[in-house]
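Entry 14. Ran structure prediction on the chain below.
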Amino acid sequence: MDPTTYAVIAAAVLIGSVVQSAVGLGVGLVAAPVTALLEPALMPGALLMVAALMPCMTLVFDHHDIDWRGLLWSLPARVPGTLVGVWVVTALSARELGIAIGVVVLLAVAVTWHAVTVPVNRATLSAAGFASGITGTATSIGGPPIAIVYQHRPAREIRTTMAVYFLVGASLSLAALLVTGDLTRDQAVASATLVPFLALGAGLGALARRSIPARIVRPAVLLVSSASALVLLVKSLAG
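Output, C-alpha cells:
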C-alpha cells in the first residue's frame, strides 16, 4: 500500500474501533467499504483478523452480562452461514465483491436506521447467526444481523455478547478461508500493522461511552458507513 492509502484505511479502522468499543459494532461497517474501495486485495481476510482482535480488547475489561443462552443458538447457525460465505468469496470477482459489500452495508444501515423491533428467540437468533456467517465471511461485516436482534437489550449486554460472537464467528470464518486458500499473507501483514490503530480506538471508545450518548454515535456511524458504501458501490458498478 502507498502511504496515503494506508493512512486512510488506518483512520477507518481507528474510527470503527472507537464506535465498536462504544456501542458494540462498527469496525466492519466503517472500515470494510473503505478497504474494499482502496485496496480490495485485502478483503475480506485483513478486516476479519481485525474483527477477531477487537472483541479480545473488549472482553479483557468488560466480560459481564454476556447472553450465553442466546450465543448457544446464534453461534452454531454461523457455521453453515460461514460455508456459504466462503463459496461467495470464491465465486465473486473483486468488482462483484465490492458491489456485495456496498449493498450489504446499505441494507444494514437501512434496517438499523428504522430500528426494526425483532423478538429475541431461538428462531431469530439462529437466522441472525446464519445471515451473519454469510455476510461476515464474504464481506467482513457480520455484526448487523446480530445487532438488530439485540438492539433493545442493555448496552453492556450488547457489547459483551457481540464481542464473544465476533471472536468465535470471525475465527470460524478465518479458519474456513485459510482452508480454501482465500486468506493471504498480505492480508495477515496488513492486519498486523493496523493493530495499534485498533488498540487506540478501543481505548478512546471506552472513554467515549462514558461521555458521548449512544444516540449520537449511532446516527454518525450510519451516515459515515452509508457514504463510503455508496462510493464503493458506484465505483464497482462503473467497473
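The longest helix spans residues 185-211. Will compare against last week's run tomorrow.
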